[in-house]
Design goal:
single chain, alpha+beta, 3-stranded mixed beta sheet, rod-shaped, disordered N terminus, Ig-like_fold, Ig-like_dom_sf
Amino acid sequence: MVGFVVRLLFLMSLFCGGLSCYKCFIDPGDSVRLCWGHILSEHNIRNIDACFKTLDRIFNNNPNVIMAGKVGRGYDTVLKEIMRSEIMHIVEEFDHHLNNDTVYEVRLKAAADTFITMASGLPRASGCFPPCGFQAHGTVYNCMTCQYDSCEFPLDCPLQEITVEENNRNQMWCHVPFVLPSDIQIVWRYAEIKTMLIDRFKEVTAGTDKLFSIPSARLEHTGTYQCEIFSRERSLVRIYYHLTVVANEEVGHAELQDVFDQALLPAGQFRVLPTLPPFSLLRLPSDVLLTVSLTSLILLLFITIGVLYWWPSKKMDRETEQEQERHRYRFQFA
């Protein structure tokens, strides 16, 4: 009797060495009760070891069972209910009763087929969206580990480059392609240099606003902006934007250089300029250019008014001088 118990415990340890959908939801003690009366038809002897091997083949090493168990988050409890409803009534029926291996084969195979059909109808995970972020809705239940597998992406997203002209508006969005919880908190941070090191950033705002806007960019706005999304104090993702603000003088120089480069092209050749998309807004001139143009127009207006005022008076003076000269000649001849 002692030898039988030792052998039974040894077989249970082997059976519990690996995991599967069956082993995730069925207790080892229930498996022993299920296999207690397993009879090898060929030799007409009771063999629990052969029963465990049958369970491994039908459930634990069956890729269809494992694939059916890849459900979305929260549905592992439904898997457990399906598995136990198919197995436990067989356990109660077979407990301390002898049955041939052929009976076990038929009953367990039918239970596995029912589990595959019902589990395959459960919602699947929404999928993993690279390249970053903890994606709870993308996790998949794994019958080989009896737990959910995460998407295994890093929290830090790749650094994105943004260039904006001075005095122009710039917006940065804390957006991710995967589903976020409803209780998220968003923290925006700023670093004066181009970096992704956490300790180099200083907190700017905290709340639920996904948009960070700079109405009029200045040179001192150049740097790295980090957006971090939390849920229940757990970090879900960190997004980085490196902003470069270009001075208006540099933009003007670049435009003049472009004109000069086009002037050096051979005769008859012109650089193909990118076409604007439909309904796009034309870029307005810089503030400096507008100021110079307005000042020139005002100066030209004053000059025109001065000329219009000076020219008639000058003409009248000339006519007066001519009239006096005629009177002088008349006086001399008289």
